Amino acid sequence: MTLDQSLRALEAHYRSMPPVAVMQLRVDGYDGQRLRLHAPLSAHVNDKGSAFGGSLVSLMTLAAWGLVTLRVEQAGLDAEVYVADSQVRYLAPLHADLVAESTLADDGNWETFADTLRTRGRARVTLASTVALPGGGVATECRSRYVAIARR
To answer: Quick check: pTM over 0.70?
Structure first.
């Protein structure tokens, strides 16, 4: 599968989940190391006119899950990916569209993750995700662990 096909399949998978479909998200970029998702503020606004906290964490979770899923596929493996745990910090209100970006945490290694998944049928990886403020800065950040379990 080409990268473009993989990204289209990922967006279709997101749309296949009813709670995610209403988020109106789209893949906004992928460079092999970072996955960026975009969602309009109008679909996620709270009673204060800023982005709803649940939407912020959901978009970061989906960006990290999508990144792990793409990396599993690129390694030629077939596995289900699950979020194991997350730590979220809400740093500032966001009054603009939501742009979440996820990348491998500093202490992670994609090759080790893929090798472990290949040999043990199960592997964990930690990701760092953020939602940016317009003009720079971070509205929300998340550190989360994901587990991939090989399909039998």
So the answer is: yes
